[in-house]
Amino acid sequence: MTNTKAGFAAIIGAPNAGKSTLVNALVGEKVSIVTHKVQTTRFQVRGIAMLKDNDDATAQVVLVDTPGIFKAGGDDRLGRSMVHAAWSGVDDSNAVIHVVDAPAYLRVLHKEPTAQDKKAFADTERVTKGLSTRKMGLICLALNKIDEIPHDQLLEVIAAFKDHTFYNEIFLISALNRDGVDALSKTLASAMPEGPFLYPPDQAADLPSRLMAAEITREKLYLRLHDELPYASTVETEKWTKQKNGDIRIDQVIYVKRDSQKPIVLGKGGRTIRDIGASARQDMQDWLGVKVHLFLFVKVREGWTDDRARYAESGLNFDV
Ligand SMILES: Nc1nc2c(ncn2[C@@H]2O[C@H](COP(=O)(O)OP(=O)(O)OP(=O)(O)O)[C@@H](O)[C@H]2O)c(=O)[nH]1
Known about the structure:
Elements (H helix, E strand, L loop, with lengths): L3 E9 L6 H9 L16 E9 L5 E8 L11 H15 L3 E7 H8 L5 H17 L6 E7 L9 H7 L8 E4 L8 H11 L15 H19 L8 E9 L5 E9 L5 H5 L4 H18 L3 E9 L7 H6 L7
Parallel strand pairs: 1-3, 1-4, 4-5, 5-6, 8-9
Antiparallel strand pairs: 2-3, 7-8
Helix pairs in contact: 3-4, 7-9
Bound molecules: guanosine-5'-triphosphate.
């Protein structure tokens, strides 16, 4: 019998609702900011929280973000497929937390919204519509920023959501002050399935950065080789070292399935991998704002398709 639990929780909500602040409150430390630039996968890891459930078991909750849900101009085919992919990232999670900027919502109800409030309201409606058709374990509503709401108006916000019966739990929180966050974290932990941790706990702090860096290289690899190497490769960040002068050294391995695929990635005289490395390094520098030294290696790994954590890293669903 294991007493560890592990799973995924999707955090969704309009821009500015307080998602990053909530992730920081759940993780318990400031998580390095992950840009939304690369959106090729269905979700991005924002942080890893180690939370206690109601029975005191420890749950590793991988907090993921699916920014594609709010893809602007989502009416064309590409937009629709990105929105669809983002929702399938939500479906693969064990729980979802919908974060709403409660003061902004109240201003709409009181007919005194700002332009940003109106947009947040429209986004919230889109999310509630999407959530109403989900069939997943736990759907939470987190009405955030209650520190800015007079007490007598709290019930009014809750009442506005009372017809949305698909929410299993509603929390009134202040992600900034951590009010209500403990109750939310216990509920989340309780919803996670039993099982071993998905990531080594000592990697948890810089994991979002490692994954982001792997994602950047994977995107370049895909852009360059998707005809020759469909779905056959994965990228992992093995080492992440901050050097004394502030530069960052990143060592990554590109795993392919068969020996015959190695020369495809390397290219004639190593040209292909050099090009991929150069453009990935450029993106990493733009993202991190410091000089990056990127070292890419190609290895064959048979049977990588059997490893659950690696699937999680590449944004794929292992349980299908
Ligand atoms: N008063 C108050 N402000 C909050 C609270 N939570 C977040 N904020 C503020 O709301 C703003 C947006 O918070 P973020 O956590 O960046 O929001 P986000 O949803 O991650 O935003 P995007 O990354 O744009 O999607 C910041 O100025 C936060 O400080 C809260 O509980 N109370």
